[in-house]
């Protein structure tokens, strides 16, 4: 397939950000260690599934689910917002995408929304409604989308000693607006991380969640091309990165309307990230006492 020129031309910072730039350092789980600490938001009887901590205290990194666990796929939507976009929002620029959320509801697509704390502050009613809807789960995408490595597509960088606080600040912002069920999952802005970043965010008790399918929806204008990219990339267990930020990703709602029926036609079932992690965690640490019902997600579709 030829990538339309206008899509290439549209590759701005956010588009580059979605291209991903993980170091590829997979942190192998250590079965001898206890399971990851529960998020302070998780009640004791409904603990969200997490992966075992990586070696040397690094946060575990989840990129995709089991390839042989059936045709499941997780659509994830990053609700980006930076600290300096407040004035732009005040002038009418929309960093939210209520039409997208409505379409996901209409099509009954379980999804995971990686929300910045800044987004939750800007759109508290939407943040609360997404959280309250059992179709969705809210996870953490930092407070205001600073990069966690020094070179990440031109994003401003957060100092290592402030990384943990930034993740926790986002969780606090969620709580402040009434988001009560945020999952202990963290998506690095731009997908950029290194050992230092993994060590620092581990202190916040999170599992880092990357992806294996880049939709390329940021700044795209051709919904068909984005949909094609998703359909070409999805395999069983895939995690697809998309955006819930209308001004930066205007085609996403149309993309969802195209890919959801097609993937269902191909036999895929949509799941939230927690379901993929639960399946993976159970496989990687079969002897862990936290398996079974204790590791069940707090909510079902
Ligand atoms: Zn982002």
From TrEMBL:
Residues 35-49, 287-301 have a biased composition (Low complexity). Residues 22-66, 281-301 are annotated as: Disordered. The keyword Protease does not apply. Residues 1-15 form the signal peptide. It comes from Streptomyces solicavernae. This is Polysaccharide deacetylase family protein. The keyword Signal applies. The lineage of its organism: Bacteria, Bacillati, Actinomycetota, Actinomycetes, Kitasatosporales. Keywords: Signal. Residues 71-271 form the NodB homology domain.
